[in-house]
Specification:
Helix content: 25-40%
Number of domains: 2
CATH architecture of the largest domain: 4-Layer Sandwich
Strand content: 15-25%
Largest sheet: 6 strands, mixed
Length: 308
């Protein structure tokens, strides 16, 4: 088992090799697909890639699928709940259009669901449901080695944006709890596992699992107390993601993105009325510039460093 730690535009890739077959879990973003192919080719040498497994179908986790499939005749397994959307290539249901992101069309040869198991690297991996960040996401857990591939359900410092909370049903107090309750349940499920090492979807693998869970529970409680915090985080994350892809854009283009991308627009709508979106985006960009995530020069917005 080998982990390719990627930048934040692409998810990490986990490569498995045993006598029976080779496999990769998650394939990064489309603009890094050629690099993903080269990383896999260098690691495998003369052996072909036999299998792709996707923990979920956000574009940063499956954007290399098509290029890898073109390079090698490999099987591809996706979460069962995503099969119909991929078969029809419904970019709305797959969230690509809603997040203003791209993904080259790919095919799949099979599906898997929570409660089943996969053999990767000669080891048995249990498939665990991980809704919250994404309703159909899964994690992979190897009990014998005490390793958890957590995707975006748990990072060393948090977890992925709770996307369902950007447009869920409201509860008795008026706020939406969709996604937050699921994320809570996932974190509680991880806490019950015997885990020595977590391989997250982003960032380096880590061993301080209990501390990471404590931070994740604390952050979730903070977000859940005021869902607009999750919306603001989503707006920031998706804006930075777009900048990492484009490298440079304009303020006008970012405002257009709010109108064209439903998920980004939903986050903005939770924070301000439509006529106040220009002010909202100016404030978001100012916060991101202060943190060093991007550079603002008048109407020109740039990403400060290349992402790998």
């Amino acid at each position: 088992m080998r982990v390719f730690e990627r930048g934040w535009l692409s998810s990490n890739n986990v490569l498995f090799v045993d006598d029976a077959r080779t496999a990769i879990v998650d394939t990064g973003y489309a603009t890094h697909a050629a690099q993903t192919v080269e990383l896999v080719r260098h690691a495998l040498g003369a052996r072909p890639l036999d299998l792709i497994v996707n923990t979920h179908l956000h574009s940063d986790h499956c954007g290399g699928n098509a290029r890898l499939q073109a390079e090698w005749t490999c099987d591809t397994l996706i979460p069962t709940a995503e099969a119909e959307a991929v078969r029809a290539w419904d970019e709305h249901r797959l969230t690509f259009r809603g997040t203003a992101q791209t993904c080259e069309r790919f095919a799949f040869t099979g599906t898997f669901a929570p409660g089943t198991a996969l053999v990767l690297g000669g080891l048995r991996w249990e498939v665990l449901g991980a809704p919250g960040h994404d309703p159909h996401s899964v994690m992979l857990y190897c009990a014998s080695e005490r390793v958890l591939i957590s995707a975006d359900a748990l990072w060393e410092n948090g977890f992925g944006v709770i996307f369902p909370a950007l447009g869920g049903e409201t509860h008795e107090h008026g706020e939406s709890d969709e996604g937050f309750a699921e994320q809570q349940a996932v974190l509680e499920a991880i806490a019950k596992l015997d885990v020595a090492v977590v391989v997250p979807g982003h960032g380096a693998p880590f061993t301080n699992v209990h501390e990471a869970l404590d931070r994740a529970f604390s952050r979730l409680a903070w977000l859940r107390a005021d869902p607009t915090r999750n919306a603001k985080n989503a707006l920031k994350v998706l804006t930075v993601f777009k900048l990492l892809e484009l490298r440079e854009t304009t303020f006008a283009a970012l405002l257009e993105m709010l109108d064209d991308a439903q998920i980004i627009g939903a986050a903005a709508a939770m924070l301000a009325p439509r006529n106040a979106w220009p002010v909202l985006m100016r404030n978001v960009l100012e916060d991101l510039a202060k943190s060093g995530a991007l550079v603002v020069e008048g109407e020109r917005i740039t990403a400060p460093h290349a992402s790998v």
